[in-house]
Amino acid sequence: MGVSPITSHVLDAARGAPAQGVPVTISYAPTSQAAAASQSTVIARSVTNDDGRCPSLLEDTHVLKPGVYTVRFDTKTYFALHGEKSFYPFVDVTFEIDQPAPHYHIPLNLAPFSYTTYRGS
Question: What positions does the entry give for substrate binding (predicted)?
């Protein structure tokens, strides 16, 4: 079995553990102008597993096209599962691909009042 061309890993920095149960959505727009005008199309939905990962966000055969991708993490739902409020109801990580590579990993370090992300490997 291959790997989704876009994967994610969410860590709960406040708990020092993987963030299980975070709904994750990927959207695609062909240009940054289309993305800015909210003309993106949802291409995948998933929920983080017990290791805080979404290993099969997209089918491993999915071919990425040049354009703008947004990975949305529904942090409000996650924190509500733990009886907490979140300052950020969701986190959008938007990135542009000119020449698609075989894999993009989008990690998120999460806390109720903070988050960080980077391009993983």
Answer: 9, 53, 118
Q: pLDDT tens across 84-120, in order?
A: 998 999 999 999 999 877 789 999 999 999 999 998 8
What are the φ and ψ backbone dihedral angles of 99, each rounded to 5 degrees? -125, 100
DSSP 3-state of 39: coil
**Binding site residues for substrate, as ranges?**
9, 53, 118
Residues annotated in the binding site, as ranges?
Answer: 9, 53, 118
CA pseudo-torsion sign 107, 91, 86, 53: negative
**Measured between alpha carbons, how far is 41 from 30 in angstroms, rounded to an integer?**
10
Q: What is the pLDDT of residues 50-84, one digit of tens each?
A: 999 988 889 888 889 999 999 999 999 999 999 99
State how far the Cα of 110 lies from the Cα of 12, in Å rounded to an integer.
Answer: 5
Please name the residue that has the structure tokens 């708990």. 15
pTM, entire model: 0.93
Nearest by Cα to 46 from 106, 117, 111, 115: 106
